[in-house]
Amino acid sequence: MNETLLTVKVAKKTREADATASFELIDAANASLPPFEAGAHIDVHLGDGLVRQYSLCNDARETNHYRIAVLRDANSRGGSAAMHEQVHEGRVIQISAPKNHFALDPAAPRSLLLAGGIGVTPILAMAKSLSQQGADFTMAYCSRSRARAAFYDEIRASAFAERVGFYFDEGEAARRLDIGAALEQAGSAAHLYVCGPQGFIDVVVQTAKEKGWTDKRIHFEYFGAAPLVSADDGSFEVQVASTGKVYTVGKDQTVVAALAEHGVDIPVSCEQGVCGTCITKVKSGTPDHRDFYLTDDERAANDQFTPCCSRAKTPLLVLDL
């Protein structure tokens, strides 16, 4: 089932840092936009089937516009290049309504927000929300340099500026975040929220687990993932439970692509196992999980998987489609 898209116009495009631009989006008919909560993202449709996810970084109380920020990635698969080169003020584009797979836990007595690079976008929205609530939180923003740190001046001028520490890899003030110390200072009841490059998140999450943080207290969202390539991949079969039909997935093919060839469409967005849009229930068989979305417990249950990137450990997967 196709989702209803929103038609928006780029009201403002701003250079926020080296290689980073923000885009303020308003309803093309000047109507209010659907509400959202901190941590939410939108799917931006750029034409020719190109869809990318960008976190909303503005105040969630603002209903007249959305704001996203995009890093120009030298290894772009098309999305960031299109945003920087083709999407300018005045252009009309289509987006999804906000989706939130990275929500704040309202029961958390304290929050630790860790941002790596462009991963600051959802973290910034969280900091704004927590500050408005008078909640207890601290934020650490790690970037290569001051010049690459988007929203630096905005954060320094914010009501929560004293709660934020900046950590730069380059320059005279170069210093790295002591992740272990930050986790210990947060306390045993705090919740962790981390977003950034895959390597940054992996280190933070692994350190937290080594220090006894449970999955329920660890929240993360990748904004991109390195492609997983394995020379050992082989073909396997998937069965659509509702029809009983069986289809072969080639060794260099995704489940989504294999099913699409036969008219079985699964909604996809990121195609990297990051966003969770394509999650499909598994009735039997064992998935080979290659996503960055499901928790360890969810993967262990083997009752769902991401067909955009995950494969099978068994010869056959029966899908609840």
Architecture overview:
The chain is α/β, with parallel strands linked by helices. The chain folds into three domains: about 5-95, Translation factors (Elongation Factor Tu (Ef-tu), domain 3, Beta Barrel), CATH 2.40.30.10; about 110-215, Nucleotide-binding domain of ferredoxin-NADP reductase (FNR) module (Rossmann fold); about 235-320, Ubiquitin-like (UB roll) (Roll). Helix content is about 20%, strand content about 30%. It contains seven helices and 18 strands. It has helices at about 80-85, 120-135, 150-155, 180-185, 200-210, 255-260, 295-300, and strands at about 5-15, 20-25, 40-45, 50-55, 65-70, 90-95, 110-115, 135-145, 165-170, 190-195, 220, 235-240, 245-250, 280-285, 285-290, 305, 310, 315-320. The longest helix has 14 residues, at about 120-135. The model has no long low-confidence stretch (mean pLDDT about 90).
Strand order of the largest sheet: 4-3-6-1-2-5
Number of strands: 18
CATH class category label of the largest domain: Alpha Beta
Strand content: 25-35%
Full CATH superfamily name of the largest domain: Nucleotide-binding domain of ferredoxin-NADP reductase (FNR) module
Unreliably modeled segments: none
Can you tell me the overall shape?
A: globular
- Name the average pLDDT: 90
Secondary structure: helix percent: 10-25%
Describe the secondary structure blueprint for this structure.
Layout: E1 6-17, E2 20-27, E3 41-45, E4 51-55, E5 66-71, H1 79-86, E6 92-95, E7 111-116, H2 120-133, E8 137-143, H3 152-156, E9 164-168, H4 179-186, E10 191-196, H5 198-210, E11 218-222, E12 236-240, E13 246-249, H6 255-260, E14 280-284, E15 287-288, H7 296-301, E16 304-305, E17 311-312, E18 316-319
Parallel strand pairs: 7-8, 7-10, 8-9, 10-11, 12-18
Antiparallel strand pairs: 1-2, 1-6, 2-5, 3-4, 3-6, 12-13, 14-16, 14-18, 15-17
